[in-house]
Records
---
Amino acid sequence: MGSTSSGRPTGARDRDDEGRARNARPRDGLGRPLPYGAEGVARQPEGVLRTPERSVVEAQELLDAGKPFHAHEVFEDAWKSGPEEERGLWRGLAQLAVGLTHAARGNVTGGARLLRRGAGAVEEWASRGGRARPYGMDLGGLAAWARQLAGEVERGDTAVDARARAPRLRP
């Protein structure tokens, strides 16, 4: 077996400590893979157990830093580790963050679709007996933000700057 210029064996798969396939390529601030050996942004650790309040704070910090892909990872951890009755909330928030990610990457169709899907998910969660302001978040305001941004993305009004267009999770 040959090797790449980065020293990685050709055809070898990246693996985590448990042997699961994981892409170890560095990533940029929007989660796009960079070439091996390039300097990337530190990845968000996966599988971290946080309180819901901590998840909101960390996700907002990442959104404010222009890293919605990383915020999506925080929401995904909450979705996968949280109580069953809150999974729809966290999944919807993850969709909003990844929708912003795709919009900032220039993926018009995917960005708009995920922003609208996330808006619908958080509204549905709130209407099914959830709360309109769980952990201080304004779900109605987030849904409105997402739909407005989806429309702007589809119209091609402007390139999306993830940092400048980051939502406020808590008013």
---
Amino acid sequence: MASAAAQRWRYVAYGLLGMPLAMAALPVYLQVPTYYTTHLGLAIGSTGWVLFLTRLVDTVQDPWLGRCIDRLSGVRLQLWMIAGALLLGLSFCGLWLPPVWWRGNSTGLLGWLGLMLLLVYLAHSMLNIAYLSWGARLSGQTQGLLGASASREAAGLVGAIVASVTPSVIMAGAATVEWQLTVYAGGFAIVLGLAVVALLGFAPPWNRAVADPLQTSELAQQAGWAESMAALSANHAFRRLLLPYFLNAISVAIPATLALFFINDHLQAAAQSGVLLAVYFLSTAIGLPCWVIAARRLGVLRAWRLGMLLAILAFSGTIFLQAGDVLLYGVICVAAGLALGADLALPPVLLAGIIEGDTRTAAYYGVWTLLAKLALAVSGLALPLLALLGYQPGMTGNSALAWVYAVLPCGFKLLALLLSASLRETQSAPLADSQPQSLP
């Protein structure tokens, strides 16, 4: 019993890094466009293009970083994680606190935004790809993989709630915005540092030899880029999973980019934005263990499909909302938040089952995170699209905002659901099985 409790605490130590990584991921995409357009005065169209281009650049580096991480172990891995944490802490602070002398210059401010986003994305990739690969190496058993995933995503949800609500509350204030953002960025750096210490000092160790201990190091060192990509391409199960995962990621990223614009201008409920975002992510936290239970009983793939269906049914109602419909939107946030738990916890488990025993774990996760970031890049184009349709921040009564925010994501989610239906049901064997079922 004591050893089981100790193992749970080691998973907690592993999962803690999910909190600051989540704070620097989706919430940044949710909060930064509103901050730079509404509070710092940048045009929505140019801000959207900066978001798109920086994310596009970011996608190129992930497979390369994944291959680099596959070569790491011991002290080199520790130094990699520490360097990534230092860069992420500094660039996150710079993102929220641009130099005063550039704030009155749109070109300079756009340049600063682009530079800080590139640095945040680089540092986040350095940490996140290694972190996901670390989790996939913790255990060859599905229960161990699920425990690591649940711990990581639970901490990530806490980080998402903090990072979604806190800037909204700060920006609703007046003269103390800059000072409060300074405290917020400093708090983020402290949490990040503690999480890295917990990972390196107390989490289950990085399992360097996933397959044959004598072959793993040699393969990681000698396999070139072309060989790694050829091995990934030859994995038919991996290839089949990528497109539904990508389309589903777009369906999540578009509302994240536009949520505050929708709340502030369509619902005209800026004062309630922090509460609504908290409701959404708290519902996700509540739904996460429910999806774990559903995955054990129905299988991972079937549970994920059910989550996508729930998201479509819930979010499609957003198009009918009018100004002041805060309570109805709150109900939608609860249902959509519950559905998000499936998107967070289940696809990584599917991927881990597919690549079990492969020596190129980080390379797989490099491609995986590449698609997630490409989805965020595509979602950034929603801002220039809205500008083209005549919407600007602060404008009320613009129907284009509601259609792009509500209908477009449901279309992508529906496509992902239909494509996932082409995968064989044998992929979704219950998690109680000793070994995960691979995709055919």
